[in-house]
Amino acid sequence: MPVRRSKVLLVKWIFENQHKLQTVRWCSSSLRYKELEESAQALEHVAPHAPPAAASPDVKPRPYRAPETSFKHDDLQVTLAAPYQLQRKPDAPDLGFGKYFTDHMLKIQYQKQLGGWQKPEITPFEPLSIHPAAKALHYAIQLFEGLKAYRGVDDKIRLFRPDLNMLRMNLAAERSGLPMFDGEELIKCMKRLIQIDQEWVPHSETSTLYIRPTLIGTEATFGIMAPESALLFVIMSPVSAYYKASDDGAVSIYADPSVVRAFPGGVGNRKVGSNYGPTIDATARAAQMGHHQVLWLFGPNHELTEVGAMNIFMVYINEHGEKQLSTPPLNGLILPGVTRQSILELASEWDDLTVKEEVITMDRVIELNNSGRLLEMFGSGTAVVISPISRMGFIDQEIYIPTMKQTRPVFQRIKDTLLAIQYGHIEHPYSHVIS
């Protein structure tokens, strides 16, 4: 029998009898599972302690839990795009936010029956193929992160505190029943992806490369339970401004007491897609009234939580005559933002500013504004960095915030400091240089 025909028959037999090979697959994968399990146990003794604000998004601190298994950067396989697959890079003024994507992507499969995480691979950018019954499509069993790569003044590319993104991603995975992983290994894989697509990192300090790690449940069953298969993928997009502000650079927000973004015991402190889709209608209604974003309130006292997809800050003169920077505490309703934590840590080192996490209500905002003690309000986040707020609608009131009238605004000082770190004007441990 010719060799080629024998190979065809062998493949056909395997395809028809693959259900009989289940025990073989289990045996071959069990060794890999044992190896990963042992390495995970070793990691428990060396896992770094995260800063309290990032590791404790809930009221009560929770211990760091190492993943049972993880993929390894050393197993990364790379398939480069062919010349005909390479895309034309858009000009910086045309970027917008999330409209264009780089030439490659990172994909890592998780299959419980094959021992867990499979080998990571970098491939040409391509559409995903998933089963119509995948849990991500029906039960929102998915999560994502957002971070950026910055091209510095020295032409080096930097990431900003990616370890905090990985910690937050694992916390969301744990809550969603998705597999956890070693964040350092994903950072290494993402750095390799950025190296391959490094020319997509804009040569500009007004544009960046946005990185979107995403984890979805792919198991094709209608049962509401932890999926036995999942896909972690990373795509990247060169971006400019997240949204247009007013002529003075500030935004107007609408505080709508009739809708809530999150509730106690929910997942407002996790970066999952189900937090964002339901905000579209409220944001559209705010836009019809001339506002850029919604200020999300909670409870009978109308407590401030987030603004749009940002954390919110307020600068005012406190009862002791000191200039104070305040933001709502992480009480389970608020996403523990990487930019938020960085602002609190950096501003705490400034002698001329008191920094505090405290409950802020609409009555408090109005009282401070009427008495002339409210100086600034602004939002913070990876996409926008810092977004000053100059106007607020609340029920039948229009509240004008003197943010843009300050001679030396705190928001600008914070923004300049963050950008200086991100673009390499100053060396700082927050920056991770990609060699």
Question: What report would you give on this structure?
Answer:
The chain has 435 residues and is α+β, with helices and mostly antiparallel strands. It is 27% helix and 25% strand. It contains 10 helices and 19 strands. The strands form 2 sheets. Strands 1, 2, 3, 4, 5, 6, 7, 8, 9 and 19 form a 10-stranded mixed sheet that branches. A hairpin with a 3-residue loop joins strand 16 and strand 17. The longest helix has 23 residues, at 22-44. The termini are far apart. Residues 18-61 have low confidence and may be disordered.
Number of helices: 10
Radius of gyration: 24 Å
Average predicted local confidence, pLDDT:
87
Secondary structure category: alpha+beta
Give the end-to-end Cα distance, rounded to a whole number of Å: 54 Å
The share of residues in helices is 25-40%
Number of strands: 19
Parts with pLDDT < 50 across at least 5 consecutive residues: 18-61
Largest sheet: 10 strands, mixed
Task: Please state roughly what percent of the residues sit in beta strands, choosing from under 5%, 5-15%, 15-25%, 25-35%, 35-45% or over 45%.
Answer: 15-25%
In one word, what is the shape?
globular
- Taken in chain order, the helices and strands follow as HHHEEEEHEEEHHEEEHEEEEHEHEEEHE
